[in-house]
Amino acid sequence: MTSFPRPRAAEQLEARLRAHYAAQRTDGRPRGSAIGDEQRLRQLAALMAQERQGAAATPRPMGFVAFVASQVRFVPRWTWIVQAALMALALLLATGAQSAQAVAMGTSLIGGAAALAGLPSLLASKSFNTAELECACYFDCAGATAARLIVIGCSDALVLGCAALCIPLLGALSLLEVLLHLCPPFFAGAAGCLLIARRARPANTLPWALCWTAIVLACAYGFAAVAPVAYEGTSIAVWGCAALAAALWLAREAYLLLDCAARGLDALKATASPVW
Amino acid sequence: MELTLDRLSKQFGEKIAVDRVSATLTPGVYGLLGANGAGKTTLMRMLCDVLRPTSGQIALNGRSVRALGAEYRSHLGYLPQDFGYYPEFTALDFMGYMAALKGIPASVSRRRSLELLDAVGLRDMAKRRIKTFSGGMKQRLGIAQAMLNQPGILVLDEPTAGLDPKERVRFRNLIASFAQDKIVVLSTHIVSDVESIADEVIVMRAGSFIMRGHPETIVSALEGKVWECVADAREAAALESRFIVANAHYTPDGRNALRVIADRCPTPSATPLRPTLEDVYLHVFRDEL
């Protein structure tokens, strides 16, 4: 059965129904009482059955929100396990850490690790060579990548939000301190991972991403030694600028990743054997 | 429904993979034949909006597919030659994933997935992981996902690769029942598949269409040029060095029976044979063999 004739059949059905009832009103006959209308009613019933069949065979495509929601169940289970472990770590830091410095270091670790945990899911199309298949679908490769970014992004926001709520609530650090230890490593870590995802060979992506995350965390610890959060407003401004710069970089890398996916196999194959 | 290719070209650096191809495709089965490197896969990728043409355009019912975007892709079903999959997915998971990508609501996708898995003989494997599948089973899964959205345009790149003869017959029947009012484009090296189900055969070489028509029309071009020659070993070797030999086997008396493709009668005792599409393929691509 063809996918196309549904709108015209609906218009035909409406027109014939209108004509049928208009004819009844003109003749002054009560609805459904005339023998001569039987044939017309049978025709209408057949047309309605055809319309129902057509509607069943060609459902409207789902919207983007429904598509994003549908992607949740396709994220590997271990990603959710890692996210849950990070939330558990946040609780542990809030309740069991010996010093504010240990809490700060652990908070940075949560930010960096959250950025890394979702990377394999984002790269799945490239890693498993399904991009070609996905590019030819209604929601193409760009749609699939956008949906994964949203799902993983929301999940990361939940982890970071959990850390931002638990740690200050249980008195380990203030909310501002938690955010400034959490956000720069997350944004910088995620931005670098997305850059690596675009430029590296699929087999090399995870090792490079691990290296990058380690560098980000080392810088975060070093930064904390040079400009500790609690040391006057200047330190807060510096941390804030670092967080803002990292966030802008992340936004740019997310855009470039989507752009690469939208350009189809030309762009995806071009990055199959790049610099690294 | 009408799919129009207008001077379509694709260039990779210095190499021209598809060279100003023009055609109008209406509902029917089109078999795309060509040697490796002829441009078939590149053409199919452009048809499916996976690759952007360097020049030219593709139009569906007069509207550019670039402008149609997702609407065009909603009418597509595609099986690539190099079919990727997520190994941890079960067959049903994969069908559900592809159904979501094709915009099929969950209320419909499970039923349709099971129907298609049944049609390709994978119903019993629905809950098994794809990484445990044989090559033929993966190929059948690929064919099933291509049909999920009841596409008006079905593009299959080497769909029978890895299928045993029984599966290939099942595939041909599936395509024949499916292709009533659809455009089906399939490329294959297995000439017999194209011969039996294609309404039109397109022969491609060096990025261009060099021959196009009904299989019988194309085959008739080789009428009077296919011969059977029975010869001893030395004569057989000489014939093989001078002509295209499509097939060779031994006769009961130990001599060589050769199926030879030649413009003129190769030996005085040669008998003419009815040509097949495979003969046409060997004749056209003789320089590349």
Description:
The complex is a heterodimer of chains A (276) and B (289). The longest helix of chain A has 31 residues, at 232-262. The model of chain A is unreliable at 1-6, 27-35 and 270-276 (pLDDT under 50). In chain A, α5 (100-117) runs parallel beside α10 and α9 (141-169) runs antiparallel to α10. Chain A folds into two domains: 6-57; 64-270, no CATH class. Chain A has 276 residues and is mainly alpha-helical. Chain A is elongated and about 85 Å long. In chain A, 79% of the residues lie in helices and 0% in strands. Chain A has helices at residues 6-27, 37-57, 64-71, 77-96, 100-117, 119-122, 124-127, 131-135, 141-169, 175-199, 202-226, 232-262, 265-270. Chain A has 13 helices and no strands. Chain B has 289 residues and is of the alpha/beta class. Chain B folds into two domains: 3-219, Rossmann fold (3-Layer(aba) Sandwich), CATH 3.40.50.300; 221-288, no CATH class. Chain B contains eleven helices and 14 strands. In chain B, the strands form three sheets. Chain B has a six-stranded mixed β-sheet with strand order 6-7-8-3-9-10, sandwiched between helices. Chain B is globular and about 70 Å long. The mean pLDDT of chain B is 89.
Q: What's the gist of this structure?
A:
The complex is a heterodimer of chains A (276) and B (289). By secondary structure, chain A is mainly α. Chain A is built from 13 helices and no strands.
| Count of the separate structural domains of chain B | 2
Biggest sheet statistics of chain A: none
Chain pair with largest interface: A-B, 36 and 41 residues
- C-alpha-based Rg of chain A, rounded: 29 Å
Strand order of the largest sheet of chain B: 6-7-8-3-9-10
Count of discrete alpha- or pi-helical segments spanning 4 or more residues of chain A: 13
H and E order of chain A: HHHHHHHHHHHHH
Mean pLDDT of chain A: 80
Q: What's the pLDDT, averaged over the residues of chain B? A: 89
The major pleated sheet of chain B works out as: 6 strands, mixed
What is the share of helical residues of chain B?
Answer: 25-40%
Give the low-confidence spans of chain A. 1-6, 27-35, 270-276
Radius of gyration of chain B: 21 Å
The CATH level-2 architecture of the largest domain in chain B is identified as 3-Layer(aba) Sandwich
